[in-house]
Amino acid sequence: MHQDRLFIGGAWMAPGTDARIEVVSPSTETPVARVAAAAPADVDDAVAAARAAFDTGPWPRLDPGERIAAIRRLAECYGERRTEMAELITSELGAPIGFARRAQVALPWSMITAFCDLAETYPWREVRPGRYGSDLHVLREPIGVAAAVVPWNMPQFLIITKLVPALLAGCSVIVKPAPETPLNALLLAELIAEADLPPGVVSVLPGGRELSEYLVGHPGVDKVSFTGSTGAGKAVAAACATDLRRVSLELGGKSAAIVLDDADPATVATGIRSASLSNSGQICNALTRVLVPAGRADEFTDALAAEVAGLTVGDPWDDATQVGPLVAQRQQDRVREYIDVGRREGARLVVGGPDMPDGIDRGWYVRPTLFAEADNSMRIAREEIFGPVLVVIPYTDDDHAVTIANDSDYGLAGSVFTADSDRGLAVAHRIRTGTFGVNQGYTMDPFAPFGGVKNSGYGRELGREGIDGYADTKSISVAQT
């Protein structure tokens, strides 16, 4: 797929420069596409179109039901091209095609409809009795122009969880995809055009970090929703603070899976494999710290080792592949360095290592890796690796496990595995994270708010709260006559 134009304000337009982004396959290390790279002048045009659409256009003034109907049209268009979308994501990200179909495409597609269902019952307008005799009309109105800045790891999921609630609220939106994965975003732009939204309501601008910085600092943007690293998120927050513009941040994680002493090792290993190593471990809410009771550490480590060693690593186009390459060589180098750090720090390497997987001589692969006998003070236990690396940490009792889980700069997700769900729920209440799972990794249920605390950011996506993030609340007091 080659695209020499940009989707600005609902129309395909020539870019402001001749700069191009070369998209490279992570599995073959060869180019697969070239697309136009947006420049600051293109951001200016997109913001101007978005401002006009919001300030004077019909979209924010429509009845919510009309916006819902338009987004349901988008869902229909999306469903017809799911296969193409999955194939593009595998081409540019290297996600195994089975995972691409299931999680990278089917999940965001279902979330479009789920958000529409939520919007059907959302309290856009309500009347409350006032304490002093007045009627109180409470309105939820669109914030304005929203910028959605997304990373490369789950591109469609992360775009949809920002774009769709913002549109349902009545905002106009500028989507800025990562330079590693622009193809799926450009296909989404085609689908948006097919859905026939009003002019100016949506723009899609591929580009690098500099473009993101220009967009989030633009005075014409009212709200920024950013997903990415904690360091970048702090810079985004600072840029928005200058003009008191709204911002929500979904940042890094170092989530803990607490395995209680009554859990079954095989069940735990299967659950953690699914919640931690999908997408080659490039998931912000992956369960990368596995806390096990010291008295049963060998049992749980052996079960995990068997699960990790049994993963099929290879060609992302093969339906049997479970783990594909990492997104880029820099990511491969980063993960390999962390594996070396773990060995130097004294953790025991059980499975994997920095070498290429057997039978693979090209592509940005890393063996799925398991460390045991680690300590929570080690870098591999404290820093987000963003690759297929798990760390087993022993604990003495439940209180010690809770202490270790909470001893992190992050607070995005976590889980507990136990034969007693009530006991697990009691543990869940004690962990300081934005999301948590009992006997599973956190499920991205579209009706449940998702987000973190501490260095994992603030604000929530999904659920009713996902729409709240793009709505201002206005109260009108009406004196009784």
From TrEMBL:
Documented EC number(s): 1.2.1.3
Family: Belongs to the aldehyde dehydrogenase family.
Organism of derivation: Mycolicibacterium sediminis
Domain Aldehyde dehydrogenase: 12-476
Keywords, comma-separated and alphabetical: Oxidoreductase
SUPFAM superfamilies: ALDH-like
Active-site residues, record numbering mapped to chain: E250
Protein name stated in the entry: aldehyde dehydrogenase (NAD(+))
GO molecular function list: aldehyde dehydrogenase (NAD+) activity
Catalytic activity: an aldehyde + NAD(+) + H2O = a carboxylate + NADH + 2 H(+)
Domain of life where this protein originates: Bacteria
Top EC group: oxidoreductase
InterPro entries for the chain: Ald_DH/histidinol_DH (IPR016161), Ald_DH_C (IPR016163), Ald_DH_CS_CYS (IPR016160), Ald_DH_CS_GLU (IPR029510), Ald_DH_N (IPR016162), Aldehyde_DH_dom (IPR015590)
